[in-house]
Amino acid sequence: MEKLQIIKIGGNIIDDPNSLRSFLADFCRIEGLKILVHGGGKLATSLAERLGIPQTLVEGRRITDADTLDIAVMVYCGLINKNIVAALQASQCNAMGFCGADGNLVKSQKRTHAEIDFGYVGDVLRDGINVKQMTALLEAGIVPVISAITHDGAGTLLNTNADTMAAKIAVAMSASFDVSLICCFEKNGVLLDPENDESHLPVLNPQTYAELKEKGIISKGMIPKLDNAFEATRSGVRTVVVCHAKAILNRTYPDHGTLIVSR
Amino acid sequence: MEKLQIIKIGGNIIDDPNSLRSFLADFCRIEGLKILVHGGGKLATSLAERLGIPQTLVEGRRITDADTLDIAVMVYCGLINKNIVAALQASQCNAMGFCGADGNLVKSQKRTHAEIDFGYVGDVLRDGINVKQMTALLEAGIVPVISAITHDGAGTLLNTNADTMAAKIAVAMSASFDVSLICCFEKNGVLLDPENDESHLPVLNPQTYAELKEKGIISKGMIPKLDNAFEATRSGVRTVVVCHAKAILNRTYPDHGTLIVSR
Fold first, then answer.
1. What is the model's pTM?
2. What angle do CA A206, A207, A213 make, to 5 degrees?
3. pLDDT for A253
4. Which residues contact B235 (CB under 8 A, 6 or more apart)?
5. Which end of chain B has the least Cβ crowding within 10 Å, N or C?
């Protein structure tokens, strides 16, 4: 099967112009088929603040009301996505920017929860990835740059977690491609000591993951990120790596990042 | 040659949810190859006001500074474009939203002017339309929905007039397709009396256009719109029509709109 690399970048890379520029230069140099999935970063939060739109958290989880959705769509699909595409095009990478609504690439359903109304948040449907359309784009020499906004197929856009979106795309594309999912951020992988960037684990399996969560060594935002990574590795994605954005060209994992393995 | 319809909608249609919904329902029913080009409307202006970003006009022409460009990118490529795409997808129209940077579809150059610095405004280059990529999208069954943001090929996004963009795309695509350019807005075409929607001209040629401009009957925003329309009709676009957004399915121009003819 042909190789396909799916790279996910997080907010801290997007928020820093130098990191983003350096990352995009490396991304251009990746050979073969590739897809970039990006999240949002602090731009959406700061725009909401400037517009005086209060951001509601319920039990630590952000609620996406209609105004907040509009901001996410503007910032993720507009400002971030199109500036990334323009930068990649300037380096002869034939990027096209998409959200899940474009070509019905990623369909989701509005999250339902017994107690919390999360608002316009979408969970990717089991068969929500349009593998045929995505494959056609790749075969046409296009590099999809995908922002984490999806649609419900009935005209409504929905805010979706970028790590989940990247993992779901990776799983779905694994039926036809030899997929590597590379989740990169501003740290050298999964760290045993968050303050020490040299403390990264070369490999993480489910048992060690459970133990480290138990001890509180892996906590907070790393948990959903790693849950998505393990889900991908259990569901047919050949290689799943969590690494620093600087390491995407370095093919010597696990030296530069944490390889996520299913057992 | 295969028929291709390029429909341009203006701000007044976009600003009114009912008009937009009705237009999109009609747009879905257009048979054959089609492209939608859209402008911005009042959303960008109101967002700039809410953010306290002053909008500068020099000699009646808007200046696009860096902040204003960001707003245009957010509103045109994000909010408007993706909501249109989601609505079309909900009606089984396989829309994909693009700006000029995506797939290098429309390349422009920053406007240079002896006295006025227009800022981040781009004029479409003579060979700026990527006909090959646009054709590939159409042949793949995709309906491009294009916002009027372009790029300079060096990483910078630029604000571009939507009428000009639609006309340039129409001209370039005319080498391979039998193109109709349908510029629609909230009036029944070119009116002899702006207050009377029944006063539309069935046909407009360059001589009558010059006379009506001279008399001040055609003025202001209609002039650049019609200049683009005449440029298109002179440059190989088979049919150029200015009409009401309600009339796009009615194939009996000039009864429902003004047919622009080159002589």
1. 0.97
2. 85
3. 64
4. B171, B174
5. C
